Amino acid sequence: MDQALKLTYVFPVIFFLVSVLVILTTLSQMIMKERTQIGALKAIGVKKSQIYYHYISYGFFLCFIGGTLGFFIGPVLIPQVMEIKYQLLWDIPYKTPGFFYPLSIIITLALFILAGLVSYLASRSVISEKPVDTLRAKVSTSKTTKISKPNKLTKHISIPTRMAFRNIFKNKVKSLMVVFGTLGCTALLVCGFGIIDTLNYGIDVSYGTQEKVDITVSFTTYSEEDLKTIASLDNIERVESPITYPVSLSSATVLKDTYIHLLDTDSSCFHVPYSGTGLTIDETTANDLGIKEGDQIKLVINNVEYEKTVDTVFTTSLLFGIYDSKDYYTDLALSPSNYWITVKDDSLSQKTTETIKEKFPAMTVKSFQDTKDYANQLMSSIASMTDVVKIFAILLSIVVIYNLTSLNISERARDIATMKVLGFNFKEISTTLVTEIMIDTFIGSLIGLAVGYPMCVLVLVVNKTTLLTFLYHINVATYFIAFAISYGTALLVNYLLCLRLKNIKMVESLKSNE
């Protein structure tokens, strides 16, 4: 319950901030298009309060529709996605979605109020101008609009590229919005892919490095004859009979029930040191007990008490409990519950597995590949959850880049018309606009790559389970994929929007007084 509540402070906060960015850019673009209409309304005597009411209500009612739909659709869809994770842990009965929770109502109302406030801020700069100024096309008086003369460093840079850099520094707020939009997109992509990387890495470390068992055979009754029969089969190199038994551990202040794994002294399957003078224990169990290497610990097995020293604390994802050699517990007369089999030829492992199943139908036989397939099946369920995050990330990038590029074209209509008059072709003009947005996108994507790892850790921290311990790891390829998706999406959106440049009329755009 606590973990589920913590998760509500991660993604909802991100998308709440995104909604502010979307509202701001959308309304800014609309007001830019209706600038002369606002001037006309003021010129004929319409009060500012009425104009404010129009644009504030425009933003408010659009967000009211979207917020209301989200209010009812969210509780229906989101739990279905989250259920994928929770069904791995528990059998959850079906519950009819609930809607009218106090916090849900408060958040929805907050979004409506925020929409009205953002609408006011977006329209304030235009409505507060004099009517005569509003009726003219917007002309910047900033001194930063000049393009500096080429020097030794910039003489090889084309004019469109230098204009792009000029526009970035001239419109810092808009550039920051692009940076933050692509930052969020890239970070969410790294987070989504990183969750899968972390889970797969944990499986590989636990079952591929620390404990590598070619075939596992589980049974209810131990038999020496069965052991000898299995050992005599073709392709069997070695058969081990580990013992797993419940144990109570106690440190100075904490008592914990777990399992002890008693192995052959020279086991070829378990590759973490365990046959010293003390115990080998996983890091999660050690942290629960508040102990470290060199500490004393008491353990009770089958009503027999031992006092041992902790030799090794190892980090793992799926292996829990304590490990030691059988030789120190011969007085307990404990029986094994499974066999660990090492094969001679891995390519024949599946065939050997089928042979054991035929000879011992009452036993449960799993090859190493079967174990990995089961783990991957669980991971595929979680992967579908991360796909939702990735889809939202791409949609975020499309919405933000579309709005800001469209707004950029509207604001640059006069500049674009001037460039057309001066003889610049479509490619050169579009290069100016695309370069401007893509530089901001590049910066935002790089920062997003850095933010993606801590975001991934944050999401997994609030999703801790008793089934596994997360070994946080993101593949290098993930960073390249996230960057390529974020940057490629922005480039495609920019290219499609640049086709609108052909529709800009030179004469109409240049009709204004300097």
Description:
The chain is α+β, with helices and mostly antiparallel strands and 514 residues long. The chain has 16 helices and ten strands. The protein has helices at residues 2-7, 11-33, 35-43, 48-86, 102-127, 131-135, 159-170, 172-210, 224-231, 283-289, 349-359, 368-411, 413-421, 426-461, 476-498, 506-509, and strands at 215-218, 236-240, 243-250, 255-263, 279-282, 296-301, 304-314, 322-325, 338-343, 364-367. A hairpin with a 4-residue loop joins strand 3 (243-250) and strand 4. Helix 8 (172-210) runs antiparallel to helix 12. It is elongated.
Observed structural traits:
elongated, 4-stranded antiparallel beta sheet, 6-stranded mixed beta barrel, 514 residues
**Sheet bearing the most strands, described?**
6 strands, mixed, barrel
Oligomeric status of the shown chains? single chain
Mass-distribution shape: elongated
**Strand fraction:** 5-15%
Q: Give the rounded overall mean pLDDT.
A: 81
Q: Taking Cα atoms only, what radius of gyration do you get, to the nearest Å?
A: 32 Å
> Which strand order spans the largest sheet, edge to edge or round the barrel?
3-4-8-5-7-6
Strand-helix topology:
Blueprint lengths: L1 H6 L3 H23 L1 H9 L4 H39 L15 H26 L3 H5 L23 H12 L1 H39 L4 E4 L5 H8 L4 E5 L2 E8 L4 E9 L15 E4 H7 L6 E6 L2 E11 L7 E4 L12 E6 L5 H11 L4 E4 H44 L1 H9 L4 H36 L14 H23 L7 H4 L5
Parallel strand pairs: 4-8, 5-7
Antiparallel strand pairs: 1-9, 1-10, 2-9, 3-4, 3-6, 5-8, 6-7
Helix pairs in contact: 2-5, 2-12, 4-5, 4-12, 7-14, 8-12, 8-14, 8-15, 12-15, 14-15
